[in-house]
Structure formats: C-alpha cells, structure tokens
TrEMBL record:
Its cofactor is Mg(2+). It holds the Pfam family KARI_N. This is Ketol-acid reductoisomerase, mitochondrial. GO terms for molecular function: double-stranded DNA binding; isomerase activity; ketol-acid reductoisomerase activity; metal ion binding. It comes from Sugiyamaella lignohabitans. It is found in: Mitochondrion. Binds 2 magnesium ions per subunit. Substrate binds at S329. InterPro entries: 6-PGluconate_DH-like_C_sf, 6PGD_dom2, KARI, KARI_C, KARI_N, KetolA_reductoisomerase_fun, NAD(P)-bd_dom_sf. It catalyses: (2R,3R)-2,3-dihydroxy-3-methylpentanoate + NADP(+) = (S)-2-ethyl-2-hydroxy-3-oxobutanoate + NADPH + H(+); (2R)-2,3-dihydroxy-3-methylbutanoate + NADP(+) = (2S)-2-acetolactate + NADPH + H(+). Its EC number is 1.1.1.86.
Length: 407
C-alpha cells in the first residue's frame, strides 16, 4: 500500500473516530457520510436505509436483510423478572466448564437463575469452577449427579467429549428434561457422533456468535452477544419459547432463528474459511510471494497483516466494505475493485469443496478423530508452535511492539 493510501485511510479512520462531534468539520465524501449515518438494528422505528428495515414490535422483529425477511428476537423481550418467573421451577445443569460453560454459567448465575455445574472431578474445569465461586456439593457436582438434578441439561462439553460421553449421559436424560446444545454438531452428525437424542424430550440450541469469554465480557458491560437459536425436537410445544428465553438468560442481545443443520454447516464452513483458515492461508500466500520477490520481512508483514488488521478491516467491521474502499486512495480502489472478482473466481471452487466436506461429514469425522485422542492438547500445541515459528508471525511480534500505542 502506498504511503498516500495509508495516510488517506488513517485520515478516514481518524475522521470516523471524531464523527460524533457535531461541530467538527468532516472531510467525508457523501458515501462515507451515508455509511456513518446508517442505522443499526437497534433502531426502534421503521427505517428505510436501503440496507435493512426494522419492524419494531416487541416480541419479534421481521428484519429485511438485503431483501430476505428474517426473524430476530431481542433481550428486551425477556427482562430479568420474566426470566426468573419462567424458569422458577427449573434447575439448569450446565455440563462442562470450558469457554462457553464459564461464560454462560456465570451469566446465568448473575441473572439469578438456579444453575448448577457438572464436570469431571479430576479435570482442569473442576478447579476452574471452584475458582469462579461454584461450591462442591451445593452448585458444583460431577457430570452424572448434575444431570440427575437438572431439568434443563446444557451440554457444553467439547464436541468430541459430547460424543465420547454420550453412552453415559443418554440414559440420564429422562422424560420431562430438556437437552440444550450450543452447536448443532452432535445431533446433526449423529451417524458419526452417535448422539441420538431421546425422542421424548425437547432438544434446543443456543449458539453465541463468539467465544465464551466474549459472552461473559459483553454481559458484564451490560450488553449482549448475538446468538442463533434452533429447535431439534419439540415435545412440549414450548421448545422454541424456551430456547429464546435461554438465549437471553445466557447473555444474548439479539437472537436469530436458525435450524440445527444450518447452524452447524455455516459454523464449520465459516471457521475453516474467512474467519480463520481461509484468511490465514491468504496471509501466508501473499507474504510468501512478497518475500520471494525480494521484499523485507517488515514490509511484507506490514502490507499483508498489519495494515489489514489495524487500519482497513476495522473500517469494514464498523462501516462496511464500501466505506473501506471509499476511505482509500483512487489508485488502491481501482486495483482492489479490479482484482476482487479474480480472487473470488479463484477461491469459489475451494469454498465449494469446503462446503461439500462439511456437508458429507468429513470435517466432523476429522474433528472427532483428532480431538478425542488422549494427547490432542499436546499435538495441538505442537501445531501452534509451528505457526509461532513461521517467519511471518515472528515478524508480527516485532511489528506489534512498534505500534504507536506501545511507544
Ligand atoms: N468456544 C467457542 O468459541 C464456542 C462458540 C460457540 C459455541 N461453542 C460450542 O460450545 C460447546 C462447548 O465448547 P467449548 O469451546 O466451551 O468447550 P471447551 O472449552 O473445549 O470445554 C470443554 C469442557 O469439556 C470437558 N471435557 C472434555 N473432555 C471430557 C471428557 N472426556 N469427559 C468429561 N468432560 C470432558 C472439559 O473438562 P476438563 O477440564 O475436565 O477437561 C471442559 O469442561 C461446543 O459444542 C462448542 O462447539 C463454542
């Protein structure tokens, strides 16, 4: 990226930051102004932005996402008193205390619901739960005891562990209980996971769109993470309502309706693609070419990762892709607009292969095989070390030290 383009982007970012000061003179184009003014889905009146329109009714919102109507629920529909009343006869047995268990469990507890944790006594999570104030024999039990006490069993074991422990868990899921997941993985791929849910209970899902740590942090800030919810089995006729209520109870702000299948397919696909695997592959490919063509490590890193994460991607996140283009130099815009379809055409077949691999269960099979090995943590750590040792990420460590905020 040319220094001129960088300056332009930096200026746009700076302007964006001060955009809330009404008296400030802003150097935005009409497009940039439009992006800033774009309403969020928190709007309470009907808006016609050309992007999304919001029908503000309590209970559910029919939102037009770029031409497709979808149903979204919101936290305000389930205030704390209503949640307490709705779950007054329930014991929420949260099984597993990893990333999601920690976040969802503490949020449920802070919301005043009757929640207990079930984890194996010899694992790391048992001590973690004690450190977080769960008391053995009061609200911390081993897995079987917690399930026996629970009316709503929240299976937040790792996906591989859900499959591994299913023969032990299934007989405890007696009539009248509800089974809750945060991923469609186990029931959707039941041929591989062997998680065949009992036919006489409600089975629901709430999948936060972020890590368990974020679920907790946003809740503590008085905000809520976006989540999707779905129903796998509705025996009582109340499964959908229960899923919505639980979504809010664990700390969600807006809740999107989906199905178990769509949730797991999109999730496995996304994390292997643009969210993690795809973007890492693209960084590596670009960096390697720059290095092979004689560029220095710092230059290759800055042009590949640093400007992306520090300057341009935050603009996409905050205001959209058009805003990012608009914030850059005419030279950069022209080139990026011309090359974007070529990348799309080159990558689309790979994305289709990936989706097929998700759909036919290959990704699930691989995940189960790898993550149920006794030494999977050690093997994973070895792979992380290999990433740490790559030149690009060693360079990144040094470049980060030179950021303005670190000086
Ligand atoms: N992490 C995310 O960002 C995220 C986001 C959305 C949804 N989800 C979904 O949420 C669910 C939980 O994921 P997570 O990331 O929170 O899991 P995690 O951090 O990997 O937690 C794993 C938990 O499972 C327990 N466990 C592992 N193997 C076990 C075994 N053989 N027997 C008994 N317990 C065992 C661990 O206990 P020990 O300490 O005793 O090993 C720990 O409490 C998954 O379905 C996942 O797909 C995760």
């Amino acid at each position: 990226m040319s220094s001129k383009m960088l300056r332009t982007a930096a200026r746009a970012a700076r302007n964006a930051r001060i955009a809330t000061a009404p008296s400030e003179k802003r150097a935005f184009s009409a497009l940039a102004k439009a992006a800033i003014a774009r309403p969020t889905i928190a709007a309470t009146t009907r808006v016609a932005s050309g992007v999304a329109s919001v029908e503000a009714r309590r209970g559910l919102k029919q939102i037009n996402f770029g031409g497709t109507e979808e149903t979204v629920y919101e936290r305000a529909d389930w205030p704390r008193e209503k949640l307490l009343d709705y779950f007054k006869n329930d014991t929420l047995a949260l099984i597993g205390y990893g990333s999601q268990g920690h976040g969802q469990g503490l949020n449920l507890r802070d919301n005043g619901l009757n929640v207990i944790v079930g984890v194996r006594k010899d694992g790391a999570s048992w001590q973690q739960a004690i450190d977080d104030g769960w008391v053995p024999g009061t609200n911390l039990f081993d897995v079987n005891e917690a399930i026996n006490k629970g009316t709503i069993v929240m299976n937040l074991l790792s996906d591989a562990a859900q499959s591994e422990t299913w023969p032990q868990i299934k007989p405890l899921l007696t009539e009248g209980k509800t089974l809750y997941f945060s991923h469609g993985f186990s029931p959707v791929f039941k041929d591989l996971t062997k998680v065949d849910t009992p036919k006489n209970i409600d089975v629901i899902l709430v999948a936060p769109k972020g890590s368990g740590r974020t679920v907790r942090t946003l809740f503590k800030e008085g905000r809520g993470i976006n989540s999707s919810y779905a129903v796998w089995q509705d025996v009582t006729g109340k499964a959908e309502e229960k899923a919505q209520a639980l979504a809010v109870a664990v700390g969600s702000g807006y809740v999107y309706k989906t199905t178990f299948e769509r949730e797991v397919h999109s999730d496995l696909y996304g994390e292997r693609g643009c969210l993690m695997g795809g973007i890492h592959g693209m960084f590596l490919a670009q960096y390697e070419v720059l290095r092979e063509r004689g560029h220095s490590p710092s230059e290759a890193f800055n042009e590949t990762v640093e400007e992306a994460t520090q300057s341009l991607y935050p603009l996409i996140g905050k205001y959209g892709m058009d805003y990012m283009y608009d914030a850059c130099s005419t030279t950069a815009r022209r080139g990026a607009l011309d090359w974007s379809p070529r990348f799309k055409d080159a990558l689309k077949p790979v994305f289709n292969q990936l989706y097929d691999s998700v759909l036919d269960g290959s990704e699930t099979k691989r995940s189960l095989e790898f993550n149920s090995q006794k030494d999977y943590r050690e093997k994973f750590e070895k792979e992380l070390q290999e990433i740490r040792d790559l030149e690009i990420w060693r360079v990144g460590k040094e470049v980060r030290k030179l950021r303005p905020e670190n000086n």
